[in-house]
Design goal:
The structure holds two protein chains of two kinds. Chain A is an all-alpha fold. Helices cover 71% and strands 0% of the residues of chain A. Chain A has helices spanning 7-15, 19-36, 38-41, 73-109, 111-126, 129-140, 144-154, 157-171, 174-181, 186-194, 199-223, 234-242, 249-277. Classes of the chains: A mainly alpha, B mainly alpha.
Chain lengths: 285, 318
């Protein structure tokens, strides 16, 4: 008997077929492990200052050297993964939920609601995302909660547009007409029949969006509007270390490379997911 | 065609109004005393509640929100963007000093990014499947994920500090010292254009691939036209629409990138002004810069929209 052709197997074979998405997946798994097991992996307490040993180059005791306050760079990079991941996940989740609700309402009810919401989203998208998040974060002040709010607002356009697209094309289908003629309420149609179509693009958008949010958070921290001082965040570490680029390059480059690897991982994984979940690529690639 | 233009202009106008409303609301509704626009935090701390009341009244902050908006818009349209707390200067003159610098970098990045992006994309499409396509596509996929300001720091580290090929930071006007200006500008422009090159390469490639499959290209081959003629006269024009859309998006990307990159390379442009004003809580400046850049992006996208009508006659009758 020939083996059963299952959808899951096809998706997995597309995803793992190319090297880049697999590398992305490995990087993300490493990130998650680092964030969860930070206390076990980090050799020192990231906040522990050790002034006599400040600004050391990498040596046997401090694998990545120490910063201007004597804190161990490697531990700070490891703990920084927690901040980046937490802020990123919460911000993109809020943006996704809010954006998708907006998009669902706009596209389902059409007409004026749609025009109004889409015009607002267009106007929001006219601002470069970093500037918008910067403006909001600056007004609210620094701190984790405010950054999350700022980043959520900055990232809200993409889910809204995605949802609008899904609903607009979903609305045309005959099965929606059939459900409505059977007496289904608007809410039920929206949630039970149209929404599931959004899961696949949602997954891709969450992955790539998480990378973009982590990058934006790094940018905000680099500019000084990020998390408050003792908490290690990669962006602020890059900012602090930039002054010492000539003498202690690893202070700046280590968190910088961490950011690059994480964003790269999310983007590659998102690319792979997009190809794997796209039914039109069945059999191709 | 005129109906199309008028409709697009109208929508563009509405978007610009919405932008001003958004900037205004963000500045006024978020927690934090709106007086922060006019005074620094230090000064505010030293005032008695009565004095704060008086100042609120003087700056019109106790009026109806709508009236405040109209007043503010009236000022903006007359060119009065307020005065900066930190620099003690007119915001307008601050911005005017910095616009040419950011324009220099931004326009250079835009031209370089789009030119090389489209060029590589077309090359990849024409040589699809060959090794040059694989390499360039691979690089484009990686390039599109690279954070520009970190690449900037890496480049400074490698090219300026280690190899000493290029000056580290700073900016000179090309009119004062052309050679130095070019050397200083290479790295920032490269970083700002990186995303554009990668995005445009992917878009141009996929767009060209679509066009090349068309029957009219086959006819051209059958007629015996050379590859260069076919590409330049027939293929490129038709592949242009998604490419121009991406160009419009790059305006926003380049402005966004300028904030971080001008900070990294210490270039006195609009981006760095925004970054430093945010830190100094100089919100008048921040408000004006965000407003200006939003308007410019809307205008750029408007131009892109207009060009659709010119490029594809079918759209004019939409």
């Amino acid at each position: 008997m020939p083996p059963k052709y299952s959808e899951t197997r096809r998706m997995l074979s597309v995803f793992f077929g190319r090297p880049l998405p697999v590398i992305g997946l490995i990087l993300i798994i490493l990130l998650i492990i680092t964030a969860i097991f930070a206390p076990l992996l980090a050799p020192y307490n990231p906040d522990k200052m050790d002034m006599p040993h400040k600004l050391q180059s990498p040596n046997n005791e401090h694998l990545l050297g120490t910063d201007s306050l004597g804190r161990d760079t490697l531990s700070r990079v490891i703990y920084g993964s927690r901040i980046s991941l937490i802020i990123g996940i919460i911000a993109i989740s809020i943006a996704a939920v809010a954006g998708m609700s907006l998009g669902l309402i706009a596209a389902y009810f059409g007409g004026i609601t749609y025009q109004l919401i889409m015009r607002c989203i267009d106007a929001l998208m006219a601002f470069p995302m970093l500037m918008l998040a910067l403006l909001i974060a600056a007004l609210l002040g620094g701190g984790i909660k405010n950054i999350i709010i700022a980043l959520s607002i900055g990232m809200i356009s993409a889910p809204t547009r995605m949802m609008c697209g899904v609903v607009m094309s979903g609305k045309q289908n005959d099965y929606i007409l059939a459900t409505r003629s059977m007496g289904a309420s608007n809410l039920r149609i929206m949630l039970r029949h149209i929404l599931p179509n959004a899961f696949q693009p949602l997954l891709v958008m969450l992955t790539v969006g998480l990378g973009a949010t982590i990058l934006a958070e790094a940018g905000l921290s680099f500019l000084g509007v990020g998390v408050s001082p003792p908490t290690p965040a990669w962006g602020s570490m890059v900012n602090d270390g930039y002054k010492f680029l000539l003498s202690n390059p690893e202070l700046c480059l280590a968190p910088g490379i961490a950011i690059m690897l994480v964003v790269f991982g999310f983007n590659m994984m998102g690319d792979g997911l997009r190809d794997a979940l796209d039914p039109r690529l069945r059999g191709l690639l | 065609m005129t109906a199309y233009i008028i409709r697009r202009l109208f929508l563009g106008f509405i978007t610009i109004i919405l932008i001003t409303v958004i900037v205004f609301l963000v500045m006024r509704l978020l927690p934090g005393d709106p007086l922060m626009l006019y005074l620094s935090a230090g000064e505010m701390g030293q005032m008695t509640p009565v004095q704060i009341q008086e100042l609120s009244h003087k700056f019109g902050l106790d009026k109806n929100l709508l009236i405040q908006y109209v007043d503010w818009m009236g000022n903006v349209l007359r060119g009065d963007l307020g005065s900066s707390i930190f620099y003690d200067e007119n915001v307008g003159s601050l911005i005017k000093e910095r616009i040419p610098i950011t324009m220099h970098l931004g326009v250079a990045a835009f031209i370089v990014g789009n030119f090389f992006g489209i060029f590589f994309g077309v090359v990849c499409a024409l040589r699809r499947g060959k090794w040059i396509d694989s390499i360039i596509t691979f690089l484009a996929n990686i390039g599109i994920t690279m954070p520009a300001f970190l690449i900037g720091i890496l480049l400074i580290f490698l090219l300026s500090l280690q190899l000493k090929w290029l000056p580290t930071t700073g900016y000179t006007s090309p009119f004062t010292d052309f050679w130095m200006s070019t050397k200083q500008v290479i790295m920032p422009v490269f970083c700002m254009s990186l995303f554009t090159i990668a995005a445009q390469c992917r878009q141009a490639r996929s767009s060209m691939l679509e066009v090349i499959k068309q029957d009219y290209i086959r006819t051209a081959w059958a007629k015996g036209l050379g590859e260069m003629t076919i590409v330049l006269r027939h293929a490129v024009k038709n592949a242009l629409i998604p490419v121009i859309t991406v160009m419009g998006l790059q305006v926003s990307v380049i402005f966004g990138g300028s904030v971080l990159i001008e900070t990294v390379f210490n270039i006195p442009g609009l981006g760095r002004l925004m970054a430093s004003s945010v830190l100094q809580q100089d919100f008048m400046v921040v408000q004006a810069v965000v407003l200006m850049i939003g308007a410019v992006v809307v205008l750029a996208n408007l131009a892109v929209d207009m060009s659709y009508g010119w490029l594809d006659p079918r759209i004019r009758f939409d």
